[in-house]
Automatic annotation (TrEMBL):
<feature type="region of interest" description="Disordered">
    <location>
        <begin position="227"/>
        <end position="272"/>
    </location>
</feature>
<dbReference type="InterPro" id="IPR016195">
    <property type="entry name" value="Pol/histidinol_Pase-like"/>
</dbReference>
<dbReference type="InterPro" id="IPR016667">
    <property type="entry name" value="Caps_polysacc_synth_CpsB/CapC"/>
</dbReference>
<protein>
    <recommendedName>
        <fullName>protein-tyrosine-phosphatase</fullName>
        <ecNumber>3.1.3.48</ecNumber>
    </recommendedName>
</protein>
<dbReference type="Pfam" id="PF19567">
    <property type="entry name" value="CpsB_CapC"/>
</dbReference>
<keyword id="KW-0378">Hydrolase</keyword>
<comment type="similarity">
    <text>Belongs to the metallo-dependent hydrolases superfamily. CpsB/CapC family.</text>
</comment>
């Protein structure tokens, strides 16, 4: 498996605090069957002032430590880039890294605030030749039926959607699990990733999310979520060559473009 979103680098953001923690995370990832991890620290102006140069240096140093510890894990990098006005400028200048130097990059919406130029920013990056991978939309506190269509539209327009493996297994609560399952059912999920931050509360476990996804989309598509499409990202393949199957897309009502989920909502709030 390939994990394209992980905060494993030591002391660079709110992920691993030190090298010992980072190595513990690397061991967990390797034991889970992850062969490649993309180290993707936050880029959040005013809070995490990371850029390609310091991230690359941190990965080089950590790669040596992983090799010395004899951990069978390959490392590459990108960044979890917050939606900010200078996002496209940073991509073009190379100060904001894409994943493994490809056209794909992690596009992080704010967790608690509805972004003002969400669709416009996506359009600008896609028009410039990049493919934004929207990170963990299922965990956004502002996601509701009124905003769900934003993500369906984004997928239609060429953006990719990444779910958190732990959200599918209930590690982030029933609400995040519900939205994860709904997006899978609507056929708009491209990849799963761990978004791991530590070895205990948010470990780099991808297999459990893959297995949970298989209950909704089948084993073959679940493998694509953690192997085929992440590999396509690393190989910088065109997005059109590895899109999700359109089995259930386009079958929904126009308003919100989502099928009736009243049964799911009842299950969500009834405690069953």
């Amino acid at each position: 498996m390939i994990d394209l979103h992980c905060h494993m680098l030591p002391g660079i953001d709110d992920g691993a605090t030190d090298l010992e923690t980072s190595l513990a995370m690397a061991r967990i990832a390797a034991a889970d069957g992850i062969e490649v991890t993309a180290c993707t620290p936050h880029i959040y102006p005013g809070l995490y002032e990371n850029a390609t140069e310091n991230i690359a240096a941190a990965v080089a140093a950590f790669r040596q430590s992983v090799a010395e510890a004899d951990i069978p894990l390959q490392l590459t990098f990108g960044a979890d880039i917050q939606i900010v006005p200078e996002l496209l400028i940073g991509l073009r200048r190379g100060t904001h890294p894409t994943l493994h130097g490809s056209r794909y990059f992690l596009f992080e919406p704010p967790h608690h605030t509805v972004p003002v130029r969400f669709a416009e920013t996506l359009f600008d990056t896609i028009a410039a030749g990049y493919t934004p991978i929207i990170t963990h939309p299922e965990r956004l506190t502002w996601l509701d039926d009124a905003h769900y269509g934003w993500f369906l539209d984004a997928a239609d327009d060429g953006a990719w959607i990444q779910l958190t493996a732990g959200a599918l297994t209930g590690e982030f609560g029933r609400r995040a699990q519900y939205w994860s399952e709904r997006m899978l059912d609507d056929g708009v999920v491209h990849i799963l990733a761990t978004d791991s931050h530590d070895p205990h509360h948010r470990p780099p476990i991808l297999s459990a999310g893959r297995d949970a996804a298989a209950q909704w989309v089948g084993a073959e598509e679940a493998e694509r979520l953690v192997e085929d499409r992440p590999r396509a990202v690393l190989d910088d393949q065109p997005p059109s060559s590895v899109l999700p199957p359109p089995a259930q897309r386009g079958e929904a009502p126009a308003q919100g473009r989502s099928k009736d989920r009243r049964g799911w909502l009842s299950r969500l709030f009834s405690g069953s």
